């Protein structure tokens, strides 16, 4: 079966076929990929344990799909175009042949440093081509990568390294983002104080930030590559993997304190990301695909690295941020490289919108043919601005709903195929069976309804487990509703059967498209020595989508309110990372609690939203007076 549908009727036919014959459908899709050995069975599953296996018995290496199979036809075509943070610095282009050579060399480096199939490798790097090379080299040698976003603190990195028992870390001396420089190696040094499993650290030169290199543990990327070159080693035969062998772990936040290591496997993830990339973006050979995400998040894994490369696409990778040196940066990049597909996040669109039309004026955006949005609900104003000012009303916008746990796009328009509607992720992709359920887990049928979004049938890209704790995977995703995967999102299905995601219904915040657990932030705040307890909720934020609002009990603070606020913010930065910093901190004498001691978050959410008139029933509170105080002091 062709990966791309070409008309809405065809989409409907394929969708129906994927419902009636899911295994046949996915087998036909999987035929489009390169396997060393095909599967004996397409699917084995139950959502009880859960146990999910796709393409059982199949053998492959995902990098042969992403690189080797394109060498004959696309060898000299760009695989990765890299635009640096500083527009004055030269960009870089890696053809598929060059990417192959670099991935092979670095695979040797990994092997020379003791890496074996199944080892876990932590990658903490800036958005440079070597990050993609490191990811692919791990996959080529059969090691499991765990990429940690550059905005996380040493403590967060340490937690992730310990949880996955990583044996090696790949990092760089430092990284640039806007006018900031992050001393990445030094952050890793701080993290490694707590990590006994790590035997080696490979350090790429990027920023020339001074670093301390420990004898016996730390080696330079360039030195290691030079050794391989001296030995004349160019190819590295990819290690054969089982379809269900782990490909990577990616940590993400949930409603409990500790981030979970979402596990994806080789075969299903490859098929799912390749298929959804080709179909949703209707990728045509030669097009330049620019996904503005960081590879530290799932969007970067799936739609900068694996999805595009498996389809022989040209992926543009950008090291910097959309607002530096000015708010025209993305448009300059589009113009410079004649970008065809721009895939970004509502938070970026809203922020750029705030600068008015000036930064867009005069930029040649005529190369653009398709636009995409991901990570959070897109408000209509931002949708229209994107459509008018960037797409000039001629580019379809694919509002793609999905999650780290999903591996790839789930509910989304298909470019030029699905009629779009602002704010709507529209319809499920073939193979995806969404359902809306009520509080009791009863399926809500028909249109013009809303409920909690679940998926009732497996798809190849879904998570298989949470690393080291399968029970956690079961209770988080498969225990709320029987025989369904629960997404944690609320959703409505309108009269046309179109889906609109309304946001998380659990204690997960979505701040600038980043997932942050409220419990995680509370734990971090509570680490501050003056804090007795705290409660964190989200509130609507014009640019970030959601902001972090913290109610903090801090009776004997040292210093004044503002200093203590800064101290608390510092604490959160140190424990989690700057991305989780509270936007507002309100000091309160107590938190609204029920008689059984449960914090009534519903009330705090209302206060944070500024909706203090409708607090609902407060009669079950232990101390209703505290609500009046909190209302009066709301920020
Ligand atoms: C939210 C990001 C509305 C949603 C790929 C989900 C969205 C969470 C959309 C996953 C969208 C993602 N419209 N909401 N198009 N895409 N979300 O794991 O709440 O970082 O549960 O994956 O982002 O975030 P994650």
Query: What is the third-level CATH name, the topology of the largest domain?
Result: Rossmann fold
Characterize the main sheet.
Answer: 8 strands, mixed
- Give the DSSP E fraction (strand runs of 2 or more residues): 15-25%
Provide the low-confidence segments as ranges: none
Number of strands: 30
In this entry the ligands are: 5'-O-[(S)-ethoxy(hydroxy)phosphoryl]adenosine
CATH superfamily placement of the largest domain: ANL, N-terminal domain
What structural class do helix, strand and pairing data support?
Answer: alpha/beta
GO biological process, one term: acetyl-CoA biosynthetic process from acetate
Domain Acetyl-coenzyme A synthetase N-terminal: 11-66
Protein name: Acetate--CoA ligase
GO molecular function, one term: AMP binding
